[in-house]
Amino acid sequence: MSILALSFTIIFIMLTMLVSVWQKLGLERDIAIGTIRSAVQLLLVGYVLQFIFNSDHPALIIVIVAFMITVASINAGKRGKGLRRISLYIAAAITVTELLMMGLLLGLHIVEPTPQYIIPLSGMTIGNAMVVSGLFLNQMKREVEASKGEIETLLALGATPRRAFQDVLKRSVKSSMIPTIDGMKTVGLVQLPGMMTGMIIAGADPVEAVRYQILIVFAFTSSAAITSIILSLLTYRQWFTSDMRLRSM
Fold first, then answer.
1. pLDDT per residue over 62-105, tens digit each?
2. Which of 120, 33, 22, 136 is CA-nearest to residue 68?
3. What mean pLDDT is reported for the chain?
4. Is 26's pLDDT higher than 90?
5. What range defines the domain where residue 38 resides?
């Protein structure tokens, strides 16, 4: 794609801003900032990845993956405002998920141990784990508020925080995985996923592109389950005070 052709895509942004003005949505400023930020960020990432791919140094791969996890944890941690050290717990859950996913992919020789494979797959895994973490925390807040009386009754009857929170945790984990599971059910029928589409546009064989997409779908589902379960185990005590009372958020 030429720079000139790419510049024409700004028309889509202009149309969106015109609709916002027409409907008085007040989104013009956010759209403009988002457009500039996304373009600058993606261009910078492109040059950084080009440098890493050319250098092929393991330390650089570790640095970029650690940076992804840090940004993802901070962003998802905003959903858990009021919970102590929540970003650290999210980082731990995402790190474990990333290590398990890449360990299996590399250990079973499913993908090659090169930056061209590790970084994109890690980015997709970490991004999916970030979304799942945010969904889990949002649902936890709603579940705790809705089940406050039930939880406090169980605590008064001598139940441990873990037992009092068991049903809430289960519902929250299930809810955080719904988008991933729904995506599995409709992949290829409702939409052609980004990785598969990109490979086809780049000239890859469609069947080969589908194989890689199946890999991503299965990895996403597994990472979603692992992230939400680990996060539930690490954070449920954060909803209680030191004397085992339900914390007021």
1. 999 999 999 999 999 988 887 888 999 999 999 999 999 999 88
2. 120
3. 85
4. no
5. 1-54
Residue with tokens 């001598």: 158
* Inside any domain, residue 247: no
Same domain assignment for residues 148 and 172: yes
One domain, residues 25 and 73: no
Res. 5 pLDDT band, cuts 50 70 90: low
Cα atoms in the 13 Å half-sphere on the side-chain side of 171: 13
Q: Which residues lie below 8 Å from residue 221, measured CB to CB, with a gap of 6+?
A: 177, 180, 181, 184
CB 140 within 8 A of CB 83: no
Residues 180 and 138 in one domain: yes
Residues 6 or more apart whose Cβ sits within 8 Å of residue 171: 139, 143
Residue 153 within any structural domain of the chain: yes
